[in-house]
Amino acid sequence: MTYEGAMQRLEALAREMEAGDVAIDSLAEKLKEAQQLLAYCKAQLTKAEAEVQKLLKEEE
Amino acid sequence: MPADSVTLYELNALVRSVLEQTMSDAYWLEAELSEARLASNGHFYVEFVEKDSSGRSFIAKARGTIWARTYHTIAPLFEHATGERLRAGMKVRVQVTVSFHELYGYSLNVIDIDPTYTLGDMARRRREILEQLEADGILHDNQELELPSLLKRIAIVSSAGAAGYGDFCNQLENNDYGLAFHLQLFPAVMQGEHVEESVLAALAAIADEADRWDCAVIIRGGGATSDLSDFDSYHLAAAITQMPLPVIVGIGHERDETVLDFVAHTRVKTPTAAAAFLINHGAEQLARLNTLQDRIMQMPRLQLQAARERMTRLQTLLPRTVAMTIERERHKQQQLSQRFRHTPLLRVQSSRLTAQSLEVRIANAAKLALQGSRLKVQSLETRLAALDPALQLRRGFSLTYSSDGHLLRSIADIRPGDTITTRLADGDVAAVTTSVQNTQHNR
């Protein structure tokens, strides 16, 4: 995943959420995805990267 | 020594005296410096040259001197105006006097310098380079590259000792936002005649591993003079336009510019400004992320809240609605059952009432009719009674008949001497008429 790709996905998610297109059922799923992308992007920008890389590895 | 000979000194002295007499004025000279050096005694020695129109061969050459006292006056002014030290390769306009020394020969003494000429020449050179890049169609190539959202892996072209390099690194590593940067120096000479080849080599090394870097940064802090014209190079500018990464240039000071400023993706004034640019970019990304986060978190929060509120409303509403519905239904049922219970009874009752009332009405009507008849009969009786002659007779009236038994109604029917019979209530009286008198006229 690239930072740019993650940002684009986040933009898309934000638009989707704002349009109210997300059913309550899939809300949790989308939110989880958004949280992961946000964490990834923030880690890319900041020094928390190493920590997040570790988290992502644990997830796998 | 024969009388027609002179010594070298005498000849040189003669040349000197002729020159001093005939060329005592000062001249404004335009020439290129082929040499320039500050001697330890404070004097500044130069060599002026003039090339032919092809620019390849010299057609004139002259030594020149700026005496220490003059140099201390004009050099700072020149450097302030141009941002350059006097150096070889530079075109200058200087005011000179011509001198000739018996031992040192022909020389020009510089007494003033016109920085605007040099500035103009530098600008012309820059313009020519830019025009060439434009003609080659590559002038804006690097500027057309999209700046990546993430500017984190920074390839730096500078020299470890260059003013500003250390500041640049410190600034990035200790930024206020906790932004992470991965920095690597690609060392290059940033001042003097080796600038071009050295920076070209550094750029080539970065381009070779372009996928490892987000951008390239060329930085050098400016001193009192920055000798920026070293960067006014066609090859350097062309190399930057062809870099596969955005190139950020921060060389020199606030005022100066080089051709690199016109071809770089992003130009900033100083290394500090370059660091600030990168930090700002990162901070903007962080802000963008935070905004996205807010946008993403806000909607579900609102959505969930709305859903929760709806549920609460339903929870409170439902029992009430149900209770109300039940109550309403029960009431309806009650009403219905009552109606069903009462209706036949009412109908009987009402029939009974109707019958009763009819009875009464009939009775009353009958009674009234009877009364009416009775009254009528009574009145008839009374009227009839009033008409009974016997009653009239008893009241004192009488009836008179003629002798042949006709009831007499007028004196015209009677003559004196006629016998008449008068009937009273209790019997008849026979009498003879003695006279007949009309009583009506007496009234």
Can you walk through the features of this model?
The complex is a heterodimer of chains A (60) and B (443). Chain A has helices spanning 3-18, 24-45, 49-59. Chain A has 60 residues and is mainly α. Chain A has one domain (3-59). Chain A starts with a helix and ends with a helix. In chain A, 23% of the residues are buried. The mean pLDDT of chain A is 80. Chain B has 443 residues and is an alpha/beta fold. Among the domains of chain B are: 8-113, OB fold (Dihydrolipoamide Acetyltransferase, E2P), CATH 2.40.50.140; 136-285, Response regulator (Rossmann fold), CATH 3.40.50; 392-432, no CATH class. In chain B, 48% of the residues lie in helices and 20% in strands. Chain B has 9 helices and 13 strands. In chain B, the strands form 3 sheets. In chain B, strands 1-2-3-5-4 form a 5-stranded mixed β-barrel. In chain B, strands 7-6-8-9-10 form a 5-stranded parallel sheet. In chain B, strands 11-12-13 form a 3-stranded antiparallel sheet, with no helix packed on it. In chain B, strand 4 (91-101) and strand 5 form a beta hairpin. In chain B, helix 2 (68-82) runs parallel beside helix 3, helix 4 (165-173) packs parallel to helix 8 and helix 5 packs parallel to helix 6 (234-241). The relative contact order of chain B is 0.06. The chains are: A mainly alpha (60), B alpha/beta (443). The interface between A and B is medium-sized, with 25 and 24 residues.
The low-confidence parts of chain B are none
Total DSSP E strands of chain B = 13
Terminal residue distance of chain B: 222 Å
**Helix and strand string of chain A, N-terminal first?**
HHH
